Amino acid sequence: MVSMKTHSLNEKELEALRYLRNAIIHGGYSPSVRELAEELDYNSPRSAFLLLHRLIEKGWLKRKDGGELQLRKDLPEARDHARTVKVPLVGNIACGAPLLAEQNVEAYIPVSTNLARSGARYFLLRATGDSMNRAGINDGDLVLVRQQPAADNGQKVVALIDDEATIKEIHQEKDVVILKPKSTKREYRPIVLTDNFIIQGVVVSVLPPLS
User: Fold this and answer.
1) Can you give the pTM of this predicted structure?
2) Spans of all domains in the chain
3) Active site (catalytic) residues
4) What is the CATH number of domain 84-207?
């Protein structure tokens, strides 16, 4: 493999490469030229296209047969410093009565790769209510969720029920699934389900509210 150094990249190329690296390795997808242009605040996708072409010419990236980008060599700095990946914040989630899950991405939040690990996809939700306060999830907290369609008993999950999402502790008993609140208030009751629900992911960490 050709020897490459970061000093062969200008500031904008390095910014682009960091963004593409995080998306490919931690996000599990190859960003489009338009997404790259938005990330770099370019007015025209052509500027992003030309920058991407330079990164390919310099040997940092290559196009696979399907058109997706592949990282040819990791950044040396990534081995020496704590890394973060940008995780999408996709609206509010109910920790009381379920609220309609909003799919609009509000922002991209840097999260340590010690939490958002390579090989999985993650998203952040802002908790509302207090039905999970005994589990350490309070109103306004950011909940880091690993996307997956199944969970083990006792895990905290994001469940979609009739197009409404909620965070609860899951327990499966024979033919039913029980989503249990973990609250200091007795007004919250378990939700008993047999079908018509989807597990969107498992809670892996709780982050403090944005200042």
Assistant:
1) 0.61
2) 6-80, 84-207
3) 131, 168
4) 2.10.109.10
